[in-house]
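Researcher: We're reviewing a set of sequences before deciding which ones to prioritize for further study. For each one, I'd like a predicted 3D structure that I can look through quickly. This is EKC/KEOPS complex subunit BUD32. If possible, include the structure in token form so it fits the rest of the review sheet.
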Amino acid sequence: MVAFGSSGIICRDSGNDTKVLKSPLRHDLSKCSEDTIKSMREAESFSLACIDREKVIFGTLPGHKDILECLGITDSGLQFPYMQHGNLRDYIRKNHAQLDDRTKDTWVRNAVSAIQFIHHHSIIHGDISARNFLVADDLTIKLCDFAGSGIGNTPAVIAEEDRYRKSPDSPRSFQTDVFALGCLIFEIVVGSRPYEEINDEDWEVIAENYDRGIFPPTEGLKYGDIIYKCWTSQYMVANEILLDIESAELCVYWRHK
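Model: Here's the predicted structure for EKC/KEOPS complex subunit BUD32, in token form for your review sheet.
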């Protein structure tokens, strides 16, 4: 097993270890109580709905260099390439001291490009996080996990982790994706999640800070202005972030001419 969560389980392909299969949760309930069986059946039903949603999205979304390639859709689930470096959060934590600015710049561009692309195709990811970008062999990153994402008029059925969530009660939208993207850029630049010093169980403190417009300091950070604009709803679409990145890079170029 590679990973599992509420939306499904990911296992290496027994016939080809360069691939993984993502499939719905299934539990052995033969010795469980009625209450446990009911709870697990509900979890299985949710997982199946999430996997079905991901099948629909990958069945319609064109390929893109910054999005994990779907190798096949079967009755059992979805096939993807095995990414030996794992997810971006774990990679940053293990290698933060060795990461250079060029690598971080590439990751920021990969992430913004991926979100801009899915938004162009009317997809709201709903759970943008460093957990949901995988690190490729060339050290670029690929957006993954569309289980439960929104598409067209069908809303997302999942939500971001607490530190990436604009508001617990707000519906998922392009703007909540952009807010989470700001949190992702912050994590790439700083090497830790927003409000890392606050314990996970105190998520309500983080939510209250966000509601009051209180954010981690971004002054002096590379991409600090962009992060702050993501957090304060100054971007309507992700493409505006790309334009700001390109403008900043052009200014740096001319300063060094």
